[in-house]
Amino acid sequence: MQERYIERILKARVYDVAIESPLEAASRLSRRLDNRILFKREDLQPVFSFKLRGAYNKIAHLSDTVAQRGVICASAGNHAQGVALAAKRRGIPAVIVMPQTTPDIKVQAVRDLGGEVELHGDDFDHAYERAVEVARDRGLTFIHPFDDPDVIAGQGTIGMEILRQLSDPPDAIFVPIGGGGLVAGIAAYVKSLYPKVRIVGVEPEDAASMHDSLLAGERVTLARVGIFADGVAVRRVGEETFRLARQYVDEVILVSTDEICAAIQDIFEDNRTIAEPAGALAVAGIKRYVAREGCTGRTLVSLNCGANINFDRLRHVAERADIGAGREALLAVEIPEEPGSFLRFCQLLGRRSVTEFNYRYDDARSARIFVGVALHEGRREKQALLEEVAGAGYAVLDMSDDEMAKLHVRYMVGGHAHGLEHERLFRFEFPERPGALLKFLQAIGSRWNISLFHYRNHGSDYGRVLAGVQVPPDGAEEFAQHLRELQYAYTEETGNPAYRMFLGG
Questions:
Q1: What's the predicted TM-score (pTM) here?
Q2: What's the topology of domain 2-49+149-322?
């Protein structure tokens, strides 16, 4: 059976549409992990994904009679583009059924390639069922995204290229897994020549269909899958891909959404390209593997398999990347509600960079703040920080791994403060550098009570703070003089209708 796949891969028809993608050194990541990390750049394919290899190989092997009736597929986007391009090259019609959750960039790309798009269901499985139905009704040939020997062989040409591009075989190849076609093809080829090369599949924690199937010893169907990494959001792996994975894949590593976001940033910092979440899975897997094994000096290949990402998703990626890389801690801290308490807490943080600071007055006894702190030494530094804050007498809770806190609560700290008197609201700007927030609070001083505070480090040259300050009428002139002496740009927002509606006392 293995020999059959070797022959299929060697005879695969992929280079009519695909390029032999480069295998590039990731110098920054290699230095940081103390291993030789190589990126297999499948994101450079004409449709920005490896999927056209398998799709074209399948369509190229159809007879003229069958091909002229047309083809159909179900896909979250990348396989769809591969099928559409392959059909266009052969001059035959293509129908693509895509989940309604598919990023717009992928839907438009299919239409640009001449594919007829039908949006159906919320995930791949619903789209798959619809595609099978349409194929039967219209007499179209169904092009499976992963569970087909010709598709598997097309993807397997990547393994052939990797071995050809290296003078010596790598220690391990890390491959994203959705339905399993990519890992099955690469593993079947590589293991036939170099059985000791470790093949490591990587899946999101919330879409672990191959991981769970291998653990159970049979294919399992997940009740639901997360769609952040939409390119691998598959509830049930293929029958043939599962068989090959059981035979050739050494292990499957699971990674979190935050780790995927951090991997997208790692890829960007090395080659200035932006991977889609599924396309960064392998890098996230390498980082987890190296941390677990403590290995150094090894050659580890990452399959960077796609770059079809909606631009608006970058907001979420940037927000979560620092947490995923262990570069930020999110803390909930209780401090006394009294003038100067903010300043004393920031003095405890010292020169650490504060990435976020949220607070709203609640009662006269204590204040609860949501604070983000930049880290340089990961979890070890975070644990030391927690102990330092608790040792200073503050009640502190680590929110870094709390999904609700990261997705929602951090943006909802606030509301109306009933019974609060003499509050005035100001927007301040100050030069952004380490210790800038502490310097700002020192300048504000402890003469007036801060009743609202919101700060986020946006990575720009200037930090921006929204602050509520209790200023009694008899102290208004003194406060005005203090503002003039601060030499920070500011705008008073006390009359702003958004403040009155959502934050005012």
A1: 0.80
A2: Rossmann fold (3.40.50)
